[in-house]
Amino acid sequence: MTPAQWSTFKKAARREKLDKVPMALIIDSPWIPGYVGVSHLDFFLDPQVWFQSHHRIHREFPDIIFVPGWWLEYGMAAEPSVLGTKIKFWPNNTPSEVHMLNNIEDMDQLPEVEVEADSFMALTLHRLRMQRQQVLDTGEIFTMATARGPMCTAGFVRNTSDLMMDLVEKPEWVHKLLDRCTRLIIDWLKAQAKAMGPTVEGIFLLDDIVGFVNEEHYMEFCHPYLKRICDAFPPDWVKLYHNDASIEACLEHLPDCGFNMLNWGKQTDFAKVKARVGHRLCLMGNVNPLEIGVRGTPAEVRAATLDVLEKSGGEGIVLSVGGGTSPGMPRQNIVAMQQALAEFNLAHFGRS
How many domains does the chain have? Predict the structure, then answer.
């Protein structure tokens, strides 16, 4: 992000009045390599391919805020890799995980983690330090540290289906695993912030597995750990939560965790989310990312974008798709979102 974009994003997170609705997209390895025409392996392993891929997109869409911006990630490998999960890399797809914790009781045998030295966390931190100045030389800054959440990380390590059964059959062991994951995530976020430098003033936490549990289980197994993570960082930081599974069980509780922004999926209509928590959270959403963003025509994208914007009333919103930018979303559909936003902003604020 540019400093000006980060200023706008921070104001939006605090629900301060803006002179127009901004647009932001979460972009990472599922979408970027295909869009710029490089292999996933080159994107992950060649520092200059990673840099030029981001730089090209930022120049192509200078009016879009890309979140978190200059995201140096190895797919979703960093968090589970340090807990013993085997990671498989593919030429034309994001990495996959081979779950190694076949019995949850075996987690007591896992060694303590050193984020500066272990697996893909160590590689990511080295690359951040190595390429930091190259990014800053573009005039942009690092803004947010990013991590998968405790349930997501535990699911990568244990296997999500087994983890769901453990919630009922072995809850004490689930708490031990989630505590381990939470401590790891806090250390990981702090290490990233240190490597990226003093412009970092936010955290971006992604945890879709929270959407797989009911409210009772959310309050026992999710809420306390999410709150611990938020509480570990300054209260005035941007704290963005992403969950494009169901948010029905957790929605009203997220502000109490400390989050001030929410990016969610297509399942829950914007108007419903606004009615429930729109006065407590900035809503980053939620044009359907697949059926509309990837498969829709520009006309369909325009209609869906205007529907979201009208339901927002132009307040407490950062326009986005409902989740990350899906693989295959074409340029013309991104432009259609921008054009619909300009039309809305002109009608409501007198400027595009």
Answer: 1
Residue 334 lies in a domain: no
Give 112's pLDDT tier (boundaries 50, 70, 90). Answer: confident
For the segment 242-298, what is each residue's pLDDT rounded down to a tens digit? Answer: 999 999 999 999 999 999 999 999 999 999 999 999 999 999 999 999 999 999 999
In a domain, 326, yes or no: no
Q: What are the Cα distances from residue 344, in Å, to 144, 263, 307, 324, 352?
A: 29, 21, 10, 23, 8
pTM for the structure as a whole: 0.97
Tokens 């007198």 belong to 350
Tokens of 287: 């044009």
| pLDDT, tens digit, 9 for 90 and up, residues 58-84 | 999 999 999 999 999 999 999 999 998
Q: Which residues contact 265 (CB under 8 A, 6 or more apart)?
A: 243, 244, 245, 246, 247, 286, 289, 322, 323
Instruction: Tell whether 298 is covered by a domain.
Output: no
Residue type, 236: D
Domain containing residue 77: 3-288
State how far the Cα of 78 lies from the Cα of 74, in Å rounded to an integer: 7
By CB atoms closer than 10 A (0-12, 13-18, 19+), residue 298 is middle
Nearest Cα to 143, choosing from 62, 195, 71, 202? 202
* 345 vs 319: CA distance, rounded Å: 11
Alpha-carbon 329 to chain mean position = 17
CATH code for the domain in which residue 44 is found? 3.20.20.210
Question: Which three-class secondary structure state does DSSP give residue 127?
Answer: helix
**Vertex 254: Cα angle to 249 and 258 (nearest 5):** 160
**285 pairs with which residues across the strands?**
319
